[in-house]
Amino acid sequence: MAEVKIKLFANLREAAGTPELQLSGEKVLDVLSSLTEKFPKLKALIFEEAEAEGKSETPALCGYINVLINGNNVRHLEGLDTLLSDADEIAVLPPVSGG
Amino acid sequence: MDDFEREKYSRQILLFGEEGQEKLKNAKVFIAGVGGLGSPVSTYLAISGIGKIIIADFDCVEASNLNRQFLHHEKDIGREKVESAKEKLLAMNPGVEIEVIREKLTEENADSTVPGCDLIIDALDNFEARHILNRLAVKRKIPLIHGAISGYTGQATTIIPGKTPCLYCIFPGVSRKETFPAVGTTPGIIGSIQANEAIKYITGQGKLLEGRLLMWDGLFCSLTEIKLAKRNNCPVCGGQMGEIPESDSR
Hints:
The complex is a heterodimer of chains A (99) and B (250). Chain A is α+β, with helices and mostly antiparallel strands. Chain A has three helices and five strands; from the N terminus they run E-H-E-H-H-E-E-E. A five-stranded mixed sheet of chain A has the order 2-1-5-3-4. Chain A is globular. By secondary structure, chain B is α/β, with parallel strands linked by helices. In chain B, strands 3-2-1-4-5-6-7-8 form an eight-stranded mixed sheet, with helices on both faces. The relative contact order of chain B is 0.15.
C-alpha cells in the first residue's frame, strides 16, 4: 500500500469540499475508489457509468478526466492499474478545453 | 524606433530596454483563435508592440460571444472574427502589422496555412485542433503557449519542443462536445498569462511556464502548479529521448 497525495481541481474540488487529501492504495483504481466512496458526488464525475449498454463491470475512467501521477498522464501508463509508490502526487483534472 | 515609439513603450522599455522593445518589434506571433483567450492575448501583444501578429479564426461573431470576447462588439455580430479583431487591434496600435487567416486548421492544411513565425499561441476552444497545432509546433520546433478555460477554471503551460513535454504528453485525449460555460474574467486571466509568457519568451526575461501546468481556480481564487513529465516515446515529440520521430511527427 502506498500513501499518496490527491489534488483535486475545479468542480471536483467543489464536490469534495477540499483541494487535497492523503489516501492509500496499491493502484490508481484503489485510490480513486476510496476517493469516490468518501465523496460519492465525485463518482459520476470520475468514472464512466458501469451499467451502460452491457459494458463490463470493470470501472473505467471518464473519457474527459485526466489523472496525472507526478506529472505523467495515466493514459500513457497502465491506466487505472498503474501501481503507486509512497509520496506520489496524483492530480485529478476536469476537462478544461474552452477558449 | 522613432521618438513616438520610445514614448509609447517607455514604461516597458524601463523593464527590458530599447533592445527588448526591438525584439518585440521584430517578432512574428501566430495566434490560433480570436475568441475568449484570443481577445486578451492579441490585445496585449498588439499594444506591447509585437511587429507582426497573425490571427486565425474561421468563426463569425455571435451574441453569445460578447460576454468574454471583448474585441467583438454588438455591432460586429455576424462579422468575421478576424476582421472584427483586426479593426480593434489596429485602432489600439496602428504600428503593428496584422495578418488574418480565415481557414479552419486541419491536419492537411496546417503546414501550408500557418506562416513562418517565432511563437505559436493556442487560443483555441477544442483539443482536436490543439493537437494539430501541437504537432505543427513540434515539427517546426516553435514554442507553443497553451491556454484553455471552462467556467471559472483555466490552465496554461509553455511548450518548448525538444525540452518540455508536448501537449500530447500531457493531454492525449480529445474534448467533450459541449457548450462550455465561461465568465469573461477566466479567459481574461489565462489569456493575460499567455501574453505575459510570450513577452517573456521574446525579450528573454524571467522563468517560463516550462514543464509546469498552471491551474487557475477562480471560484477559490487560487493558482496551483503541477510539475509535468515527458511521456516515454511520445508519438508526437519523442518524449524523453528528445528526438522527434520522423514518421510520426507529421
